[in-house]
Amino acid sequence: MTQEELNRIIEQDTYLKERENPSPHDTTLFLREVSHHCPLCGKELIYKGQKKKNKLYQIAHIYPNRPTIAQYEALNGVERLGDNSESFENKIALCFDCHSTQDYHTSLSDYNRLLSIKKKLLEQSAISNAIRSLDLENDISIIVLQLSNLSDVELSELNYDPVYLTNKFENNELLIKRRIEGYVHSYFPFVRDRLKEIDGKNGFNQQVLASQIRNCYLKMRDKCTNKSVIFSQMTDWLNNKTLSISKDACEVVIAFFVQSCEVFDEITK
Question: Residue 167's pLDDT band (boundaries 50, 70, 90)?
Fold first, then answer.
């Protein structure tokens, strides 16, 4: 292929647009999306000096807006995100070194790696947006606080054997299954009994809470099928709603609702 032939292809490809510099708002979103670290190498993208922050990043195209001959041939027929090359979905924040490599030496494997990272980030963002405005019974904070202060002595006779979890996980989901089983084994009776204690007091309704947890799960399930991601995002949601008393205690509460059937569905074979 000659450069002249490639130029004609680029002119006819409606996906490829002239480069647009991201707005300050979009730049903030790009940095927040990757937690201010390069998603390829882990370097910090902002250096916080004593007097000012130094920019250590560039906003990179995932699929190049003006591919070279080598890039066009290597990436022929690949999946492309967004409506065009300047869409938010086709850009990502990278450190200078990774951006340089991505810009001028893009291989198919490099492209697919960055594409996969961006798709996961977009998925997480969609989940977060779907549940941000969901309500939650206020007094669940009481249980989160009690869990965070629980002693070994109080837990010594509260062990519980999970009986339904096996049917909710595939064979390749062992890590998240064991994690939740551990929480259920140690804490299920405590959470169950505390919910009974506060049910009907100060306007708290356990059935309403269960419905809210279920609704949160269903909204996430529409955006994602990865149980580890769903469990983590539900934990973050509960942690935010309870003003970050204890993220570990929030994991225990979500595990309780996995056992009591509000979170995750039984697998039918």
Answer: confident
With 0-12 / 13-18 / 19 or more C-beta atoms within 10 angstroms meaning exposed / middle / buried, residue 126 is: middle
Rounded Cα distance, 66 and 17, in Å = 8
Please give the single-letter amino acid code of residue 1. M
- Alpha-helical runs (H) found in the chain: 3-12, 24-33, 69-74, 96-104, 108-131, 140-148, 152-155, 174-198, 206-223, 227-241, 247-259
Q: Could you tell me the pTM of the whole model?
A: 0.71
- In Å, how far from its chain's centre is CA 14? 31
Give 120-126's long-range contacts (Cβ < 8 A, gap of 24+): 121/33, 121/34, 121/39, 121/92, 122/81, 122/89, 123/223, 123/224, 123/229, 124/224, 124/229, 124/233, 125/33, 126/223, 126/224
Average pLDDT, the chain: 88
Can you name the residues that pair with 57 across neighbouring β-strands? 95
The whole-number pLDDT of residue 46 equals 86
| Angle, CA 52 vertex, CA 48 and CA 53 arms, to 5° | 45
φ, ψ for residue 12, nearest 5 deg: -90, -15
Q: What are phi and psi of 224, to 5 degrees?
A: -155, 145
Render pLDDT for 202-234 as a digit per residue (tens, 0 to 9): 888 999 999 999 999 999 888 888 999 999 999
Kindly tell me the burial class for residue 109, based on how many C-beta atoms sit within 10 Å of its own C-beta (0-12, 13-18, 19 or more).
exposed
Q: Is the pLDDT of residue 50 over 60?
A: no
Q: Give the domain ranges of the chain.
A: 3-131, 140-259
Query: Who's near 51: CB < 8 A, 6+ residues apart?
Result: none
Alpha-helix residue ranges (DSSP H) falling in 39-139:
69-74, 96-104, 108-131
